[in-house]
């Protein structure tokens, strides 16, 4: 009997953020957790040459503006595996907006990306907000998210970065009641 990973709590008893990994660092395919199947489905291949720079997944127990759980990129040294739950602390949010994929709406929709670090990763313990990342690394993360939609009609735009307090507030607002 499998457990629906989307129904896990967003925070553990110590107040640490849960992130469920869908596509691990280095994966060239977007995997998506399907709670009805209790399994990970093949979503789509990333454009040739692109791989996830860090573990990619979602914050369980949340619902973002797009109706899916809140997206999260976890800065990791090595890849984990789909289904692994990582206790994290929010580093910040990369704010993005994009066109409706089918082009039905004329307006743009927000599709922000939470960026977090594992609580147990000593290498990242001094990082507290996006400004602690090098300008180059922030640019590379932005470019990754822009490039993953290269062959779609989404036309994403980077709006900027917000810090950990804003990120935690957004997670708490997204928690399903």
Can you tell me about this structure?
There is one protein chain. By secondary structure, the protein is an alpha+beta fold. It has one domain (5-172): Inorganic Pyrophosphatase, CATH 3.90.80.10. Helices cover 14% and strands 34% of the residues. It has helices at residues 135-147, 164-174, and strands at 17-23, 29-34, 39-45, 55-59, 70-74, 85-99, 108-110, 113-118, 157-162. It is globular, with a radius of gyration of 15 Å. The mean pLDDT is 92.
CATH topology descriptor: Inorganic Pyrophosphatase
Would you list the SSEs in sequence order as H and E?
EEEEEEEEHEH
Structural class per helix/strand content? alpha+beta
Note the total helix count: 2
Percent of sequence in beta strands: 25-35%
Number of strands: 9
Order of strands side by side in the largest beta sheet?
1-4-5-8-6
Helix share bin: 10-25%
What is the CATH top level name?
Alpha Beta
Number of domains: 1
CATH H-level name... which superfamily?
Inorganic pyrophosphatase
Instruction: Give the uncertain stretches in residue-range form.
Output: none
Q: Please, what is the average pLDDT?
A: 92
Gist?
By secondary structure, this protein is of the alpha+beta class.
